[in-house]
Amino acid sequence: MTNIAVTTWSLEQTAPTDLLPATAPEGDVRIVRSEVPSPEFSRFLYASVGGDIRWTDRLGWTYARWREHLERPGVETWVAYDRGTPAGYVELESQDDGVVEIVYFGLIQNFRGRRIGGHLLSYGTARAWDLADRWPGLATTKRVWLHTCSKDGEHAMDNYQRRGFRLFDTKVEEEAEVPNPGPWPGAYPA
After folding, report:
1. pLDDT in tens, 32-64
2. Closest by Cα among 123, 170, 165, 162 to 25
3. CA 187 to CA 96: how far, in whole Å?
4. CA–CA separation, 127 vs 76, rounded Å?
5. How high does pLDDT run on average in the chain?
6. Measured between alpha carbons, how far is 78 from 66 in angstroms, rounded to an integer?
7. How far apart are the C-alpha atoms of 49 and 183, rounded to whole Å?
8. What DSSP character marks residue 96?
9. Which has the closest alpha carbon to 189: 37, 54, 47, 49?
10. Which listed residue, of 60, 118, 168, 187, carries a Cα 20 to 30 Å from 12's Cα?
């Protein structure tokens, strides 16, 4: 197995006014919070969105681990639907002192390039800013951050910056190159 250099960029917003919303796409695109913790559904979203960009860190999670994560206060999953079909999602996670991380964000491969991503990121970021309104006891959001890497889609960084996120850290690390896991083996070419 060979190693590859992976660049990881961390970006942030430090005020709700930093958000520069995208225009909503045409058609029947809706964004809905997945309010019932469902390990099956969350794993489906994770594997389907990340399958062609080598998301592998959660593939080994057990059902119990998924449930434990999803039931934590301040963890939310917002799903974009195109004409009733899941197109992508954004996962938010409350951290200490009013910090919210956009832990995962992306679209299933067949829904990319249709202006859904900018809209979903805008909506998810707005929900990160008002997260404490839905979770009594959480601190008011003071900062929203995320990271992206050179394995992510070619338009990821541009989308984050157009939504008002600013770069605050860059790291380059060697990683073992792994095949695209796909939502099932062989679903996407390497």
Report:
1. 999 999 999 999 999 999 988 888 889 999 999
2. 123
3. 38
4. 9
5. 93
6. 16
7. 8
8. G
9. 54
10. 60
